[in-house]
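tokens incoming
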């Protein structure tokens, strides 16, 4: 699946470093432009402006998003000292890695963190797939926990260079027992961005109390917010063209010229991190947890395909 991509020079260049620097600079510019704005689509937070014009709440969201991205990158990297279990599936192998035992404030075990990942090919342009997955209004089409719910985009911090690069809070609203009342049942922190190689949509559930504290006036609470990120990495499926002829794995001759061109499809890598409360040890994965993991991934893939291919 990744053969043509890896045998080209497409993923390996300093362009990714430059993209990371541009993305960080764009966030600073966006924050300076927003200043002390504290009215977020109907949710009002008393956000004191900092002396340089950056709202404390926005700065906290930026810090929390950076922490989320670091956790995500660490989770998806393979580690020889932390091997993965392979679960065969119709769409491709599903890899499961047992993480740390998560403890509550009193030291009691809440369960074990599981990181689940798989990759698949989709005959959909990568930019279309990216826009579909990053849009809050589409989340109820692929997220099992958000089906039949209304999704609102709040607290948006956009890049000054590219509005597709953004940090936002997604509010999942479900009807309460009183049909005239709408309740916020879940909140996701989400960052979506692109670089010279791929497109990413990374998100993590956060609780309402933490969000209100950070957006109102919390100065030292970012590191104490529990964060378990999941997300998507979207690569364009590319064809390596040598002297006008498409090729797979290859060695260039001195007189040959190489070009990397999109084939029109995408390679989607899905990574979920979940907390399994039934597991008390990182050394054992019970059969019922295996079934839950496989079902979560397969159902998500099916929903994405139904939304984009039918």
């Amino acid at each position: 699946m990744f053969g043509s991509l890896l045998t080209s020079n497409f993923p390996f260049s300093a362009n990714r470093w430059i993209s990371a620097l541009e993305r960080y600079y764009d966030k600073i510019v966006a924050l300076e432009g927003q200043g002390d704005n504290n009215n977020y689509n109907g949710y009002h937070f008393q956000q004191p402006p900092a002396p340089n014009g950056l709202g404390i709440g926005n700065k906290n969201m930026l810090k929390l998003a950076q922490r989320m991205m670091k956790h995500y990158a660490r989770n998806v990297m393979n580690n020889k000292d932390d091997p993965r279990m392979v679960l065969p599936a119709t769409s491709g192998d599903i890899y499961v890695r047992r993480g740390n035992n998560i403890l509550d404030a009193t030291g009691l075990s809440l369960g074990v963190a599981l990181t689940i990942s798989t990759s698949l090919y989709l005959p959909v342009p990568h930019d279309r797939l990216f826009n579909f997955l990053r849009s809050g209004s589409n989340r109820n089409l692929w997220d099992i926990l958000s089906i039949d719910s209304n999704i609102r985009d709040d607290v948006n911090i956009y890049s000054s260079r590219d509005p597709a690069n953004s940090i936002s809070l997604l509010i999942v609203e479900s009807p309460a027992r009183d049909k005239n009342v709408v309740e916020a049942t879940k909140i996701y922190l989400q960052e979506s961005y692109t670089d010279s190689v791929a497109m990413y949509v990374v998100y993590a559930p956060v609780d309402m109390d933490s969000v209100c504290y950070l957006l109102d006036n919390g100065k030292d609470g970012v590191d104490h917010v529990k964060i378990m990120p999941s997300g998507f990495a979207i690569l364009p499926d590319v064809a390596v063209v040598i002297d006008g002829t498409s090729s797979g794995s290859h060695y260039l001759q001195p007189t040959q010229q190489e070009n990397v061109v999109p084939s029109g499809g995408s390679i989607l890598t899905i990574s979920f991190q979940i907390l399994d409360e039934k597991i008390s040890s990182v050394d054992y994965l019970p059969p019922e947890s295996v079934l839950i993991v496989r079902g979560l991934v397969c159902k998500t893939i099916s929903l994405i395909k139904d939304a984009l291919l039918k």
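note: Helices lie at 3-7, 15-34, 56-76, 126-134, 139-142, 208-216, 287-309.
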